[in-house]
Amino acid sequence: MGASVIPFCVYQGKVHFLFHKTFSGRRAGCLVDFGGGGETGESWQETAIREFIEETETLFFSDDVTNAELNEKSIQNQFPVLESLFEKSIDRYPDWWCTRGSNKKNGKNKDWRTFFIEFDFKDPLPMNREWESDRGQRFKKRRELLWVPYDALLEIYNNTPEMLWKRLRYYKGVEEIVLSINQTMRDQAT
């Protein structure tokens, strides 16, 4: 079992989705969501929440990114913040999640859930600077966070899916969810 989250926000009048890129390893250069395998006893949501906090290395919800540190205490401190965002989004938009289809190599479906959760916009530049300046002492891996406009994301899915980390290519119904989110946010703005 595994789960992930793709945060979204409305920024400058347009829906954007948050992804990250790594600079090394098998996911280098690809747009990646925030997710991974579940731990014993975790729900889908708990897995997605923990994975987001771990993969952003606690920077996203930190009050002071220069002192953010990934440890069990900081994960537990940030968990309720993200849990609240999940509850709010799922209550308002219960259909904005998808499953993962079969991998073309092995034809198997992975037991997986990806949640689209509304966040407030946060400028990734200060967090990206922290990763960029680190030389392996503080963070596991150098990353870069980026907000991708909804139309650019659809363009990638339709024309250059190789820009996406491979599991994102197997998500079922992503384009429909992205369009639904965009339409709903536009309707709410008017």
Residue-averaged pLDDT, rounded?
Answer: 92
Contiguous uncertain segments of 5+ residues: none
Element-level helix/strand string: EEEHHEEHEHHH
Helix content: 25-40%
The CATH superfamily appears as Nucleoside Triphosphate Pyrophosphohydrolase
| Biggest sheet overview | 6 strands, mixed
Global shape: globular
Would you state the CATH class?
A: Alpha Beta
Count structural domains. Answer: 1
What is the number of helices? Answer: 6
DSSP strand count:
6
CATH topology category name: Nucleoside Triphosphate Pyrophosphohydrolase
The rounded distance between the terminal residues' Cα atoms is 39 Å
- Determine the strand fraction and express it as a percent band: 15-25%
Please explain how this structure is put together.
The protein has about 190 residues and is α+β, with helices and mostly antiparallel strands. About 40% of the residues lie in helices and about 20% in strands. It contains six helices and six strands, in the order βββααββαβααα. Strands 1, 2, 3, 4, 5 and 6 form a six-stranded mixed β-sheet that branches. Helix 1 packs across helix 2 and helix 4 runs antiparallel to helix 6. The longest helix has 21 residues, at about 70-90. The relative contact order is 0.22.
